[in-house]
Design brief:
Number of helices: 5
Radius of gyration: 45 Å
Structural class: alpha+beta
Shape: elongated
Strand content: 5-15%
Order of helices and strands: HHHHHEEEEE
Helix content: 40-55%
Strand order of the largest sheet: 3-4-5
Number of strands: 5
Largest sheet: 3 strands, antiparallel
């Protein structure tokens, strides 16, 4: 086509000298041939086959993307686990602080061994606590009310905020337990000098572990002396 146009351009190079006959020749002879060349050489020429992503490239891209998404999901799970563990530690510290403050407010109950608790799992939450809010309670009843609130929680059914996990209790710790012991030295001294050992235990399973094992249990132990008022 280009060769033909070049010949045509040589034949009609001096366009300034075109006359009516030249235009008629151009219209009758040249333009139809150009149109014919377009029909034969351009319009019917198959387009070059387009290229794109192959199936293998798509699979590799999907694999890389899915690997990255799995990594992000794993980081999120680890972050959530760390947040839960931190929350459990804060809850345990809250239990320790609460029982310590209660014992300081009831020194006579401490020295009379009324706050000794072998294991909160065996605590009787079915028996109502003494009502020391409106009534008058001695040191023993105050200690019973304190332990009942700490172990069993507050309210009726379900009780909330306690360490116990039995029945309808909504505990603040996973498989939590509370132990209170006399820590006097020697042992015969008992709690007469206000020495107490507070132990809070709860389950803190590793990432991906659903069952609680001995290795997943965490202990928070505090030895303190409750001073006389």
């Amino acid at each position: 086509m280009f060769l033909y146009l070049r010949l045509c351009s040589k034949q009609y190079a001096n366009i300034a000298n075109f006359n009516k006959n030249n235009i008629e020749i151009l219209v009758k002879n040249v333009f139809p041939k150009i149109a014919d060349l377009y029909e034969r050489d351009i319009a019917h020429t198959p387009l070059k086959k387009q290229t794109g992503f192959s199936l293998l490239e798509v699979i590799i891209a999907a694999l890389i993307l899915s690997t990255g998404l799995l990594g992000v999901a794993s980081l999120q799970i680890i972050g959530m686990k760390g947040t839960q563990q931190s929350s459990m530690k804060n809850q345990a510290m809250g239990v320790v602080q609460s029982i310590t403050e209660r014992m300081r407010a009831n020194y006579q109950g401490v020295v009379q061994d009324k706050y000794v608790l072998a294991d909160s799992a065996a605590f009787d939450c079915a028996t109502p606590a003494p009502n020391c809010t409106t009534g008058t309670c001695n040191a023993s009843n105050i200690a019973k009310a304190d332990l009942h609130n700490l172990v069993c929680g507050y309210g009726n059914t379900p009780r909330t905020g306690g360490v116990a996990t039995a029945g309808n209790d909504i505990a603040i710790l996973v498989n939590g337990s509370l132990k209170l012991e006399c820590a006097g030295v020697p042992v015969a001294v008992g709690c007469t000098e206000g020495d107490m050992k507070i132990t809070v235990e709860w389950a803190e399973g590793a990432l991906g572990e659903e069952t609680v094992t001995q290795d997943s249990l965490v202990l928070l132990v505090l030895k303190t002396r409750i001073a006389a008022p």
